[in-house]
Amino acid sequence: MAQVIVLFRSPTSPPTEDEYHKELSMQGLAPFSIPVLSFKFDNQEELSQKLQDPNRYGVRDNLGLQCTGDGAGSAEALVPFILQSYTPDSKPLLFPCGNLRREAIPTAMAKAGIGLDSIHVYCTCADPNVKHLLDELMKKQGVPSYAVFFSPSGVNFTQDILSGSEEWDKVKLVAIGKTTADTMKNKGWKVCAVSEQPNAHCLAKCVVQAYDGDQ
């Protein structure tokens, strides 16, 4: 029977194939995704006004067209992508952000002398259905062999649900990225593997390596 691996993230909506499920299934695992985050949007009118005047910002050529650095995986890793393209002589960068934003990008831009126009556009909240979905999964599939956390917020919002459960003491915990791993370790959780990049292939690779290391 395939080992169950629960991913604390929103699954890809059909008809698009879920790359995480695909890669993990190819490794003989049974993946299940449970949404752990929900979002409340703020200041949409102000953001819309700013986007109507893109010439004020250094990102005008990319609005709605393409992304650079979207695979960076963390704010710290994204900074070099920004610094490669912008200088103190550039127009300021529009920085839509959430209530849980880290200071890595604002601090780096300030040190580099690059203007940053920050606007709070969303709040990250816990998905109200996490506990119910997890309970239903465990009733049908049993205790998972692995659990993967994709963000510090996902760790924080599941802490009360998972802490104190003897069943979860046996689950191997995996992190997407160093920042998430550090958050888990700070809570006293044992991290058995860390995916170097936030993509399905790297996650599957690190889970397989963790499994092989237990044999």
Automatic annotation (TrEMBL):
Pfam family of the protein (one): HEM4
Superkingdom of this protein's organism: Eukaryota
A molecular-function term among this protein's GO annotations: uroporphyrinogen-III synthase activity
GO biological process: protoporphyrinogen IX biosynthetic process; uroporphyrinogen III biosynthetic process
Domain Tetrapyrrole biosynthesis uroporphyrinogen III synthase: residue ranges: 66-201
Signal sequence extent: none
InterPro entries referenced in this protein's UniProt entry, alphabetically: 4pyrrol_syn_uPrphyn_synt_sf (IPR036108), 4pyrrol_synth_uPrphyn_synth (IPR003754), UROS/Hem4 (IPR039793)
GO CC aspect terms: cytosol
CDD domains in the record: HemD (cd06578)
UniProt cross-references to PANTHER family, sorted A to Z: UROPORPHYRINOGEN III SYNTHASE, UROPORPHYRINOGEN-III SYNTHASE
Name under which the protein is recorded: Uroporphyrinogen-III synthase
Originating species: Stylophora pistillata
Gene symbol of the encoding locus: UROS
